[in-house]
Amino acid sequence: MIPFLQMKPEQIDSLDKHFKSQMETMVQTIQTTPADELLAELVQKAIHFGIKVVIAILIYIVGAWLIKVIKRALGKMFIRRNTDKTISSFVMSLVSITLTVILILITIGTLGINTTSLAAILAAGGMAIGMALSGTVQNFAGGIILLIFKPFKAGDFITTQGVSGTVSEVNIVSTKLVTTDNRVIVIPNGALSNGTIDNYSQQTMRRVEWLVDVEYGSSSEEVRKVLSEISSADSRVLGIATGAPADPMVELNALRDSSVQFIMRVWVKSEDYWQVLWDFNERIYNELPKHGIQFPFPQLDVHINKD
């Protein structure tokens, strides 16, 4: 409860008497002080307070300018050192908020307001707000975790929380993704740090896989030969000699109900993944029929016995 509400009746009466005494003293001073002296004192206090206001405004203007200079210098430093955009945007946001709070406290202190009491009030208010906004605090902590462990960086293509996109920005409480159709998705860092993140850009190479179904009766050697020629003819396909984990491979994968299934796997650079997948789909569709290899349709054999 609020301390005032916890006071005893006699304490409230004592406080009321003290307040009345102070007011009576002030009124008596005004009544007994000559008008010219009272006016001079008021003018002096007004001038004194006005000087404080002007100084406080100047401090705020200069402080705001200094904050911009510091942010600009940090930005140039991050660019010069090729700092990850994820880290730079997070640090810039944190520095901006911290310096702004300090500037406000200094400005208020210049006006003669007791900043110690104000800091205590802000601390108490911050605790209350923190309890009310526990989710925001969790998102802030999630941002710190993402910054430390770096499961992705700006520019990476990831899938998380049911959405896919390129990371464009990581700030204090959230991360922005730009989807392939140019939508911006904002994901809270708390959920992001506690969820599954599928990063497609972290590795330099990816494996592409095709499952090719052909009809029964097709020559397995011919199918393997055609698929191998398709992969070997493309310069984007990598092998052990070029640093890939394995060479391209074609194998008979399964004997299905209506088809014989072959599997083909190749390694490519991450940025070539989708284009290679689409190009090979078209080549497989066009090349296999040229060699007499047909794609199957679901079929069912029905046997009728006559008694």
Task: List its traits.
8 strands, 307 residues, 5-stranded antiparallel β-sheet, Helix Hairpins, 3-stranded antiparallel β-sheet, disordered N terminus, 3 domains, elongated
Describe this structure in words.
With 307 residues, the protein is α+β, with helices and mostly antiparallel strands. The chain folds into 3 domains: 33-132, Helix Hairpins (Orthogonal Bundle); 138-199, SH3 type barrels (Roll), CATH 2.30.30; 205-290, 2-Layer Sandwich (Alpha-Beta Plaits), CATH 3.30.70. It has 8 helices and 8 strands, in the order αααααββββαββαββα. The protein has helices at 9-32, 35-80, 85-110, 115-132, 134-149, 189-194, 220-232, 273-290; strands at residues 157-160, 163-170, 174-178, 184-188, 197-199, 205-214, 249-255, 260-269. The strands form 2 sheets. A 5-stranded antiparallel beta sheet has the order 4-3-2-1-5. A 3-stranded antiparallel beta sheet has the order 6-8-7, covered by helices on one side. α7 (220-232) packs across α8. It is elongated. 14% of the residues are buried.
